[in-house]
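[audit] Reproducing an earlier prediction to check determinism. Same input, same settings, fresh worker. If the tokens differ from the archived copy the diff job will pick it up downstream; this log only records the rerun itself.
[audit] input (95 residues):
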Amino acid sequence: MSDKLLFPRPANRDLAVHTFLHALQEDSELFDRFMKDPEEVLAAYDLDDEAKRLLATHDYAGLVARGIHPILVVQLQRRVEWGVSRYADERDAEG
């Protein structure tokens, strides 16, 4: 058994991204707001412009390439894809 990490610790600049992704996972109201207006939600977090762009555009590969933990990215992807589907169903039902 190696003592080497399977995935490296996040860079200090990305701790806020990890914290944000965890908050999205735990807070349904925050996630709903993010789906409706990602720029407004992201403005409240101490994230650099690249992180905000990657999150707002749902650039999952870009997030992983940046060093964001893949499990957090997959959780975001699943939640976004289900959320988009849910909002599309609501919109279709309205009209």
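[audit] rerun output stored. Observation attached for the diff report: Residues 70-94 form the longest helix (25 residues).
[audit] end
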